[in-house]
Amino acid sequence: MSILSTEQLTKQYGAEPNIVKALDSVSISIEPGEFVAIIGTSGSGKSTLLNMLGGLDRPTSGTVKVDNYELGKLRDEDLTVFRRQRIGFIFQNYNLVPILNVYENIVMPIQLDGKKPDTQFIKEIAALLGLEKKLHNMPNTLSGGQQQRVAIARALASKPAIILADEPTGNLDSKTSDEVIELLKVTSQKFHQTIVMITHNPEIAARADRTIHIEDGRIAQ
Ligand code: ADP
Ligand code: ADP
């Protein structure tokens, strides 16, 4: 059974006569534990698709299912809780909080959720990502690759079943990109996570188990 799926997913922006169809009847199905890359050129609809999969935005029509929940049926408040509990997000620009140190950044979503971080688990993740000596550092003292590893640690910290990554290597050189993708693969296998990653880079996409091509808002064969 799929962990993440869409049916006839359509998203339009704007109003007549200036409608942009960012997604047009997209149906995809992702199995638990899969590492899927979504590849397409700029403006093809990748971010829109990822935002819909993560419940960050609502479709114009069609459905998104996570586990067996149809996201469109959840109220905004419930959707927020659902997202926090099941989905970890990773972004191109890392989105770290500059005034918090590495440890504080990693545990921030858990604290926002009103929970106490599992310190042992946080240390385990930090060690896996080579961050054990950086926990007291501020983000601006880290390289781009290190900052992205902090963002990965933050995404993993709440033990989500699904990781959604939007151009996670977009700001990294190719060697660092390779390392970051390898770490994503290792941690997702260790924690039985499903990863959906957006990229416009075919070499990065080739590291995934499966690639979905998107072109002008449609799945390309
Ligand atoms: P990608 O991530 O592949 O670059 P996007 O999903 O960001 O593509 O965009 C798909 C299309 O939707 C583009 O034509 C883009 O200009 C348009 N678009 C995206 N977000 C908005 C928005 N908030 N308002 C209007 N148009 C948008
Ligand atoms: P708990 O109360 O859950 O035992 P602590 O606050 O004692 O957690 O922290 C346990 C460990 O986590 C500390 O020894 C330290 O290594 C790390 N840690 C906690 N807070 C920070 C922080 N703000 N910056 C860096 N590391 C921290």
UniProtKB/TrEMBL annotation:
MF-aspect GO terms: ATP binding; ATP hydrolysis activity; transmembrane transporter activity
CDD domains reported for this sequence: ABC_MJ0796_LolCDE_FtsE
GO cellular component, one term: membrane protein complex
Residue ranges of every copy of the ABC transporter domain listed in the record: 4-221
Keywords for this protein: ATP-binding, Nucleotide-binding, Transport
Keyword Transcription: no
The keyword Transport belongs to this UniProt entry's keyword annotation: yes
Protein family: Belongs to the ABC transporter superfamily.
Protein name according to UniProt: ABC transporter ATP-binding protein
Protein species of origin: Bifidobacterium eulemuris
